[in-house]
Amino acid sequence: MTDALLAAIERLPLLVPEGYGLSVQKEITMRKFETLLLLSPELSAETREGILTALTGVVERENGVMEEVDHWGMRDLAYPVRKQMRGYYVRLVYQAPAELVAELERNVRITDGIFKFVTVKLAEEVEVA
C-alpha cells in the first residue's frame, strides 16, 4: 500500500475492516466507585461470601479491580425493610469503567438476599496501575 493510502486509512479507523494489520486501541477510562449493600440478616456466612465472590467476579470479568470488601456487620435499621429490623452491611470499593456499574447493579437486583444497594462515584478518573 502507498503511504497516502495508509495515512487515509489511519484518519478513518472506523472504516478499516479487521485484519488489515492496523490496530486501533480503545482507551478505557477507569473510575473509582463504592457500592453499599444491605443483605438479609437470615443469610448464612457462607451464602454472604458466595454473593460477594460472585459480585467480585463480575467486577473482574468486566476489567475492573476490586480494591476493598469491607464487612460492616449486622446493624439495626431505622425502619423495617422486608419485615426485618436488622440487616448485614457490606461496602465494596472498586475501580472500573463506567459501563460496569450497570452490569454489577443488574446482578445485584437479581440476587436473592440483597435488600437494598446504592452506588456512588468516588473519583472521576483513576490512574490504572
TrEMBL record:
Q: What does the entry give for GO biological process?
A: translation
Reading the lineage from the top rank, the first entry is Bacteria
Check the record and name the InterPro entries matching this protein.
Ribosomal_bS6, Ribosomal_bS6_sf, Ribosomal_S6_plastid/chlpt, Transl_elong_EF1B/ribsomal_bS6
Kindly give the Pfam families that the UniProt entry links to this protein. Answer: Ribosomal_S6
Q: Which keywords label this protein?
A: Ribonucleoprotein, Ribosomal protein, RNA-binding, rRNA-binding
CDD domains per record: bS6
Asked whether the UniProt record includes RNA-binding among its keywords, one would answer yes
One Gene Ontology cellular component annotation held by this UniProt entry: cytoplasm
Q: What's a single GO MF annotation on this record?
A: structural constituent of ribosome
Q: Which PANTHER family match?
A: MITOCHONDRIAL 28S RIBOSOMAL PROTEIN S6, SMALL RIBOSOMAL SUBUNIT PROTEIN BS6M
NCBIfam families in the cross-refs: S6
Q: What task does this protein carry out? A: Binds together with bS18 to 16S ribosomal RNA.
Q: Family per UniProt?
A: Belongs to the bacterial ribosomal protein bS6 family.
Q: What is the name of this protein?
A: Small ribosomal subunit protein bS6
State the organism named in the record.
Desulfovibrio piger ATCC 29098
